[in-house]
Design goal:
CATH class: Alpha Beta
CATH architecture: 4-Layer Sandwich
Protein name: MBL fold metallo-hydrolase
Structural class: alpha/beta
GO molecular function: hydrolase activity; metal ion binding; sulfur dioxygenase activity
Order of helices and strands: EEEHEHEEEEEEHEEHHHH
Largest sheet: 6 strands, mixed
Mean pLDDT: 94
InterPro entries: Metallo-B-lactamas, Mito_Persulfide_Diox, POD-like_MBL-fold, RibonucZ/Hydroxyglut_hydro
Organism: Acidithiobacillus ferrianus
Helix content: 10-25%
Distance between the termini: 38 Å
Number of domains: 1
Low-confidence stretches: none
Shape: globular
Keywords: Hydrolase, Metal-binding
Length: 249
């Protein structure tokens, strides 16, 4: 398998590329509109054809490039089936993994940051990786104060789904704000300041007192991502010019 961790410096988002060496097919997890050209260059350099884009959840801090990539490359769009988005070609669920060539991404339903959030488990030989989206970050976790988020639900998702994985499982989050790239289940159990060794009550108190500002792109990113990255008419000009005019609402 070919694997790349790619980074958007504006939204601090990690996009993950998975390539099947046997078939030349690839998947991009959580792609970002502004970095689409970079992602296409990486695919070309690796001699890969994009088969699917895949989302962990409906993002509030960036617009996905899923729809534009589909128009440009013929790729299909995958995401949580329970979102019931008409623009999704393949709805993933715990009993419906996404398989491309020799790569299988197994969904884990991990709500709490949003109510339909999914993580993805990937096993390659003796190495197991979990792509946790915003459910579990390195020394942190996603917020729970909008998009039907709920701290009790997130606590249970992390402890019952993610912390139940083997300790050596590698954790790749959707974001990091301190240039960290990877963690492990053992590390987050031991030292995550919000979730490691904390009771549910302690976690609820921590999350209730974060007092974070809303993401600056939330007003247009959420509706755009509910249509797989279709550009609404009121997008800022700096974002609008990235979109194909035929895809604008």
């Amino acid at each position: 398998m070919l694997f790349r961790q790619l980074f958007d410096e504006e939204s601090f988002t990690y996009t993950y590329l998975f390539g099947c060496a046997e078939t030349g097919q690839a998947v991009l997890l959580d792609p970002v509109l502004e970095t689409m050209d970079r992602d296409l260059r990486v695919l070309q350099a690796l001699n890969l054809r994009l088969a699917y884009t895949l989302e962990t959840h409906i993002h509030a801090d960036h617009v996905t490039s899923a729809r534009k990539l589909k128009a440009q490359t013929g790729s299909r769009i995958a995401g949580p089936a329970m979102d019931a988005l008409p623009c999704i070609d393949f709805g993933v669920a715990e009993d419906r993994p996404l398989t491309v060539g020799t790569i299988t991404l197994r969904p884990l339903f991990t709500p709490g940051h949003t109510d339909t959030h999914h993580s993805y488990l990937l096993t390659e030989g003796d190495t197991q990786r979990v792509f946790t989206g915003d459910a579990l970050l390195i020394d942190g976790c996603g917020r729970t104060d909008f998009q039907n988020g709920d701290s009790v639900t997130l606590y249970r998702s992390v402890h019952e789904k993610l912390f139940a994985l083997p300790n050596e499982t590698l954790i790749y989050p959707a974001h990091d704000y301190q240039q960290r790239h990877v963690s492990s289940i053992a590390q987050e159990k031991a030292r995550n300041p919000r979730l490691g060794g904390k009771s549910m009550g302690e976690f609820q108190e921590i999350m209730a007192n974060l007092k974070l500002p809303y993401p600056k792109k939330m007003g247009y990113a959420v509706p755009a991502n509910q249509d797989c990255g279709k550009c609404p008419a009121d997008l800022p000009e700096t974002i609008r010019r990235l979109c194909d005019p035929s895809l604008q609402g």
